[in-house]
Amino acid sequence: MAEYIRIDGKDNVAVAVNRLSKGTSLNVDGRAVILAEDIPAGNKFALSDLPAGGTVVKYGFPIGHLTKAVPKGGLVDHNCLKTGLDGLLEYSYSPDLEEIPASEPRTFRGFERANGEVGIRNQIWIIPTVGCVNGTCLRLAELFNAEISGRAGSVDAVVAFPHDYGCSQLGDDFQNTRKVLRDMVLHPNAGGVLVVGLGCENNQLGEFMDFVGPVDASRIKAFETQKVDDEIEYGLAMLREIFIVVSSDRRTECPASDLRIGLKCGGSDGFSGISANPLVGRFSDWLVSQGGTTVLTEVPEMFGAETLLMNRCADKSVFDKTVSMINGFKKYFIGNGMPIYENPSPGNKEGGISTLEEKSLGCTQKSGRSIVRDVLEYGDRLKTKGLNLLSSPGNDLVAAGALASSGCQMVLFTTGRGTPFGTFVPTMKISTNTPLFEHKPGWMDFNAGRIIDGDSFDALLPQFIDKVLAAASGAPVRNEYNGFRELAIFKTGVTL
Q1: What is the distance between the alpha carbons of residues 40 and 191, in angstroms, rounded to a whole number?
Q2: How far apart are CA 450 and CA 432, in angstroms?
Q3: What local confidence, expressed as pLDDT, does residue 351 receive?
Q4: φ, ψ for residue 159 (rounded to 5)?
């Protein structure tokens, strides 16, 4: 195993693979570097004397400037490296487009829905219109799961998704809640849905179902708890009717082009942009080559690398939507009196990420090299195949939920620190380093740390593709084994 990684020939720092001790002598591309201090795993050290104010280069791009001089072999981290980003920017479209050639078609076994979409799970979801009926929905799920135990057929889960919203909201904040709940009702991973309202909330059930649009009444049912005598028995009766229909669904062979996969990272470390994120980027390009769809979000973690995405926009209209998404999110920070570049997190810093530019250059690698075909607002549903960008904050639960809400049947989640959560679709965890994979086998699904250990991307990518297709065909991922399925909605306004 290598002791360090220099990602690009233009880099003036390298990354320690394992903890390196002060005094260690390294040969970095023909130059001798003696470490001036201990370097934690995933952290950077200088390849030459770097002056105060000097630019640090990683991935071949600037990642910030130094607040003090760092000697050759010295540690370069958040204590001496600051962002070079500042305020709103003007952008110009300089297309650099690369068509991904078609690859040999692959298939998975999914559930074909009447509207032409394909689910990778066949679940019954219980969705509250308002947080006031969360307890009712949870109780219905508990009782109905016990009732169908041992005879669920093709129904792989009955799940309630409590949330805190649906009332005391105004404007776009309220519409965000309605859009996400609508998207869930229409999601292909749900073979059936029971919508449960209270009766006096802002998110009135009748208006909400009109917003959802025409549905199959044998699969999607709704009621208000204030209008029935016993909401538990009433809800259970509706679930029994839904179950009769959904439990007869069967998996069929479907082309990989039917897959819509979300791309997310969280708890990142200094290896994220070296192992897991580039691996996911290669998968994204492969799925695009199959005619499928991938979605990149976390807009604040595009700051500093946004021009790389902008220059891959299919045309000027997509470019303009990308600029609007980026600057719109910056205005969101400014409007709330918050610094635009308050990133990375404490865990990121400990793992070796020092500035937002560094984090973004690693984050955006999940998108591979494909052309950006469309840009979605928060709560929008996918309509264009290929690589899409989605407006959402970087918060793990909110961003993963936004990806699922857009219609993604699965989220690929890379992490160097580890996290157990799952959104309301399968959330596959890919570790950036082998120690994490070995330390948290109950959380992790795939070890991209093997890249750091010496495996090649060419060797690992086919195994990763097989893993994703197996999950799409029904193999549970770790968050499903653990029963961790959660809903988080982006809160953007006042609460009455």
Answers
A1: 48
A2: 8
A3: 87
A4: -130, 135
Q: What are the residues facing 58 on neighbouring strands?
A: 61
Measure the CA–CA gap between 443 and 478, rounded to whole angstroms. Answer: 6
- Residue ranges of the chain with per-residue pLDDT less than 70: none
- Return the percentage of the chain with pLDDT > 90, whole number: 93
pLDDT of 308 = 95
Residue ending a domain, among 250, 273, 299, is: 250
User: Domain range spanning residue 69?
Assistant: 4-82
Q: How far apart are CA 397 and CA 485, in angstroms?
A: 10
Q: Token digits for 62?
A: 């600037």
Give the span between the Cα atoms of 461 and 468, in whole angstroms: 11
In the numeric block, the tokens 């292909």 are attached to 188
Q: Do 47 and 143 share a domain, yes or no? A: no
Pick the closest to residue 392 from 298, 285, 276 (CA basis): 298
> How many domains, the chain?
3
pLDDT 10s digits, 316-369: 999 999 999 999 999 998 899 988 777 788 889 888 999 989 999 999 999 999
Closest CA to 160 of 491, 424, 426, 448: 424
- Fill in the DSSP letter of residue 20: B
Residue 195's alpha-carbon distances to 162, 192, 207, in angstroms, are 12, 10, 13
Amino acid letter, residue 363: C
How many CA atoms are closer than 13 Å to the CA of 443, on its beta-carbon side?
18
DSSP 468-491: HHHHHTTPPPHHHHTT--------
Please give the C-alpha separations between residue 302 and each of 144, 245, 333, in angstroms, as whole numbers.
Answer: 43, 43, 14
Strands 61-66 and 55-58: antiparallel
Q: How far is CA 476 from CA 293, 451, 482, in A?
A: 21, 24, 10
Domain end, chosen from 250, 266, 283, is at 250
Q: How many CB atoms lie within 10 A of CB 69?
A: 14
Collapsing DSSP states into helix, strand and coil, what is residue 165?
coil
What is the rounded end-to-end Cα distance, in angstroms, of the chain?
57
The answer as to whether 434 is a domain residue is: yes
111 in any annotated domain: no
Task: Identify residue 478 by its one-letter amino acid code.
Answer: R
Task: Write the Ramachandran bin of 343: left for phi over 0, alpha for psi from -120 to 50, otherwise beta.
Answer: beta
* Other Cβ atoms within 10 Å of 147 Cβ, number: 13
Are residues 271 and 16 in contact, defined by beta-carbon separation less than 8 angstroms? no
List the structure tokens of 105.
């078609």
Q: Are residues 52 and 141 in the same domain?
A: no
